[in-house]
Amino acid sequence: MKNPGAETQSVRFLMCRPEYFGVDYVINPWMKGNVGRTDREVAAMQWERLYEALKSVAEVELIEPQPGLPDMVFTANAGILIENEFVLTHFAKREREPEEPQFKKWFKERGVSVHLIPPNLLFEGAGDALLDGSGRWLWVAYGDRTSLETHPYLAKIFNIEVLSLRLTDPRFYHLDTCFMPMEDGYLMYYPGALDANSNRIVEERVPPDKRIELGMDEAVDFSANSVNIGKKVIMNRCSSGLRKRLSECGFEPIETPLTEFMKAGGSAKCLTLRLNEKTSVKRTAHSTVATRKVKMEGQLIDSHLMSRVCDSIIYGGGAFQLHEMRLGRKRNELSTAEIEVSAPSEQALDKIIRKIIPLGATPPQGESADALLAAVGKNGVAPENFYSTTIYHTEIRVDGEWVSVENLRMDGVVAVSGKTARCKLFRELEKGDKVVTGGEGIRIVRPVSEYSRQETFSFMGANISSERRAELTIERIAWEVNRIKNLNGRLVVVAGPVVVHTGGSAHLAQMVRDGYISALLGGNGTAAHDIELAMLGTSLGIDLRTGRSVEGGHRNHLVAINRIRRAGSIAKAVENGELKSGLFYELVKNNIPFCLAGSIRDDGPLPDTEMDLTKAQAEYSRLIKGADMILMLSSMLHAIGTGNMTPANVRLVCVDINPAVVTKLTDRGSLESVGIVTDVGLFLSQLVKELKIFSN
Ligand code: NAD
Predict the structure, then answer these.
(1) Most CB atoms within 10 A, among 33, 102, 357, 463?
(2) Can you give the residue range of the structural domain that contains 564?
(3) CA nearest 425: which of 493, 433, 357, 401?
(4) Which residues form ligand 1's pocket by a CB distance below 6 Å?
(5) Is this model's pTM higher than 0.85 or not?
(6) What is the pLDDT of residues 298-317, one digit of tens each?
(7) Spatial CA neighbour of 393 closest among 670, 675, 673
(8) Is residue 142 in some structural domain?
């Protein structure tokens, strides 16, 4: 076939008569409910009208329709022809695969070079690949029908720049259902069918005065699935608003109803394949699609790691090819997978890789590069593309060697100095520090036996689990707490003031006396109400013995705070005999360290409350070092704060009456966590009861 690109030649299309057209199966949302409901005569008439309309302004060639191939009428999906190079479609849907040899034969017979994309990739021709109106670049979609990995091939074969766009609405399953490049650089499209990054690319390339945006109503009329020849736009239907906008841009819409074909999800554009695309002379092959291989190993199916990795890739705007997947056949046998991750740009790929690293994705053996380091330019400010840490054991590749990150916590960055990698918070960064950026040379090492196990039990919630199971869970926690004590381990408790209001602080005080607790973390409220209870018998003005509020009791916690302020500290109040009982009395008496972190709600505050939050965070972090278990009791604020600085191998037990808080805390990726939805007072009384049984 001669190069038909020259301006002087008339426009040429390939069409296929709808002799065997019908909706025989469902492969897109438009076909649903329409199987067997097309009218062949009406379809034939509508097709002839389109054919005639096109013939009046262009040349039309025909391919012989084939029985059993109802969608062959949609020739746009045959492939894409630019100059003498034809890339044949490789259909995503099995139902359409038999069309491939028909189209291949037709083009071969006409002397065109026919290219096949690699067999593991998908490509649905000019349905998903559309030349810019001036032939300068190729817009190519990816999603269900065309693989992102196909884009670099197209760039190379056609020696053209490929711009990758991601389709997100299943109704607009091909790019040409929602996107139409037009003469003079215009573009008619429906932004709602593309993801945010794709819309940004479109806006960068097409100036606002050249963008004809469709509303949802116009998009579902398949207004963008039209044929543009010069200034004419041949389409199924044109709303009055669109007609006005098109004519303002110098275009003349010509309506030709194609309702029968709409039942199969196609309109004018789908029914034609342009045989002489207009191309620009100045072209270079270019695609920004970036690809990297990762490896996964572990209990990939049971722990849903595989599905979470796949979701992260797709939601991150990427695509993947599963190269190898070996499933462990027994419960504790490992599964392995090798995944090729692609994204429309190197930055998008970095973002995806950073998301899947915490799920255990690592570079395949010998395929990793050193981590990319960027220097801190200003004290306390990280370079833009910084890697943010998780709670998992992390290693960084420095000069070809993997080194463990020290001082690991969540939401920090990694600073590398020589062969040392250390987790730092923004405020700890100093000008010149070398910080890990991007997603290369970072791996998370998760011991295989310790894949996340999160459980939630409820005393009161109807559906989560039975009361009996929750009781058994507390019994198991008591067993573990007892064991930690016997092995000289560390149990750290995070407690909110509700512990006091529910009568739970007496049980905690008992646990301090009995030597179970290594440190206590809380806020001003926990101590204020505990001391109020010890001094005045109320918690937030409620007499805990009678459950009734006492006259003027609302100021009792202020009285308590004031007395401690007079004494100088909680320890001094214990020393001078003013504080004689309660949780904080026991902590002081038993030399158990505690940290009270300040908050905007605090009254007083107590002299012990650390109002400098940077210092409070550092002290919390110091006190949880080496913890075997952290018991988080009814304080969303302090529990989340603690959770963020806790490494993944520490056992978390979270107790709260609000299931959403429990889920949030147990779901944060700790390797083993248990959440209990119940009243914290009840929980502590049951726990202490069980502890007594173990210690007897
Ligand atoms: P928070 O909202 O972060 O957490 C309270 C949690 O307790 C919630 O998740 C809630 O669902 C849960 N809860 C409520 N009733 C419960 C029950 N019966 N059993 C189990 N869980 C229950 O608030 P917080 O941690 O209590 O307080 C936030 C900050 O305010 C802290 O720093 C605290 O010290 C401070 N504060 C100060 C004062 C004061 O100075 N007077 C008083 C209260 C709180």
Answers:
(1) 357
(2) 454-695
(3) 433
(4) 496-498, 502, 523-526, 528, 557, 599, 601-603, 634-638, 656-658, 661, 679-680
(5) no
(6) 878 777 788 989 999 999 99
(7) 670
(8) yes
